Amino acid sequence: MAGFTMSLNLLLLVAMVATNILSLYHLSSTTNFFQSTLKSSPSSVPTVPDHLLRQLHTIRSAINHLTNHHHQQPDKSTSSSKDLLLYSKLSPIASSCHNHPDLLHHYMNYTPFSLCPSDSDLVEKLILRGCHPLPRRRCFSRTPPKDSSVIWSHFSCKNFDCLAAKFPGLGFDLSVDKSVSQFSSYKTELDLPITQLLKIAKSANSVLRLGIDVGGGTGAFAAAMKARNVTVVTTTMNFNAPYSEAVALRGLVPLHVPLQQRMPVFDGVVDLVRCGRAVNRWIPVTVMEFLLFDLDRVLRGGGYLWLDRFFSKKVDLENVYGPMIGKLGYKKVKWAVASKVDSKHGEVFLTALLQKPVSR
């Protein structure tokens, strides 16, 4: 205990010294800049660089948090702080974790070598805020009872029948027939049946073996492709429902990663990427652009990017998202736009099948 207290005090001392050094650097650089500016242009006023302000804010927040953390909960939080500091030395954690010290403290506030807290909601909140990968913990994850595959205490529904009735269009009816039929019909120009997709690939001499379904919910598309001997992994999050568990119950692989996270896949090894309805205009524009270029990274030459019912305003599709997609330089195999049925602000859906160039 004494050793940890000394380590914590040393950490606070180092942080305070770093703060003072940054402050002196800022003041000196600002003074020099101000003097040179006055000589050249007396009317201009220097501004504080944003990156210095962010660094100072982060360091001061860390000092305040660690100080409060140390004084308010000396018993349990001391062990969790020790684990966080120890893990930070062993392996880096996402920088965004430090931007949410309260959530991070709550996540790391556990008893080592015992059951992990029941905090799945907290995990989702941290990941959504960019804290991914999360710090590892030395505790045992909670598992469902023998007669279940889900820890239902986290959710309002207590079985999949309830979820299927509450969310009829989200694929919680896990039967294979329902999954296949969802992607086998052609009712509107926005539909792209799997049979048509396979014919398009075959006619282009492009083999479909491995795919990623981004924001794939319960894994319905991956299940339908599995019936066609195509392996598809599904990225999903557990938003108020056990999406990851539903994917796993189909005998498929759920990837618990957010849309802003780099795909944990090597470059140029994927034949097909499908973006479901989770990829839409609610994603910040910059994040969307990075997502598209990361998907380009994992796609092989000649592979396909399928935007399935991308939702946005028509004016944004024409002025923002259309040009953004065009930067990829892909061939437009299918490009269908249809207005939302109950649209009040010019919302539209886009279904696009795009083929990556074989070489650039």
UniProtKB/TrEMBL annotation:
Renumbered to this chain, the signal peptide range is 1-23
Q: Output the Pfam families linked to this UniProt entry.
A: Methyltransf_29
Fetch the InterPro entries from UniProt: Prob_Methyltransferase, Put_SAM_MeTrfase, SAM-dependent_MTases_sf
Q: One GO term of the cellular component aspect? A: endomembrane system
Which family does the entry's similarity section mention? Belongs to the methyltransferase superfamily.
Chief place where the protein resides: membrane
Location within or outside the cell? Endomembrane system; Membrane
Q: Which UniProt keywords apply?
A: Glycoprotein, Membrane, Methyltransferase, Signal, Signal-anchor, Transferase, Transmembrane, Transmembrane helix
Q: How does it sit in the membrane?
A: Single-pass membrane protein; Single-pass type II membrane protein
Please indicate if the UniProt record lists Glycoprotein as a keyword: yes
Name its species.
Eruca vesicaria subsp. sativa
Taxonomic lineage: Eukaryota, Viridiplantae, Streptophyta, Embryophyta, Tracheophyta
Entry's Gene Ontology molecular function annotations: methyltransferase activity
Identification of the protein by name? S-adenosyl-L-methionine-dependent methyltransferase
Might you name a Gene Ontology BP term for this protein? Answer: methylation
